[in-house]
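User: Show me a protein chain along with its predicted structure.
Assistant: Here is one chain, sequence first, then structure tokens.
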Amino acid sequence: MELWKGRIDFTGVIQSPLIGFMKLIDFADTDHAGYKWDWKIDEQTAFGYIGQVIAWMRLTWLQEPHGGFDGVGYWASKVLLWDALPENLPAENAIGFYGEDLLRVFAMKLDPNERDAEYKKAEDVVWKMLAQSVLQKITHGKGLTHSLHCGTLLDMPENEGKDAEPGTFGELLRYGSVHFEQMREMEYIVAPVVEAEVIIRKGVLEP
């Protein structure tokens, strides 16, 4: 809430002194983590767009003095974590970050006799989404990347309904997400250690 005071969109959020540490982070860090969008904006604009994530980072790096809130300790012992890339963006993790590729998966017709590479890829991706992930986030990313995200493509009149046409993998995904139950053990990860040099020893809203 503090980051958004006086704003109606994310522009300039990153300039807040509360999250000044973001000036040390660039796209190389997100690429290394596996999030490989084809950005057409600079790092600071992109990180402002995900300001809620940045606010969370500050909290996990925070240790208020005099026995106040210990975000570092809370992060290490009280937050249940999973790997967001395969769990929340399983399609992108498997086929990349181009929206047209995901739309092509949704629109592909189910055919038990089909065995070409594109069909097998679509089949693999959809079953990964149904059996091995928490959700599939459909992003819009308007104006952020050179390519169009799947959400933006689906908003176009010519693509209406392509994500769930009868007899497609999109229809299977819709049906399976409601009627199938996963039989796996959820995999959780240990919270990454907050390095001593980045710990913020200030009050929650102290610049």
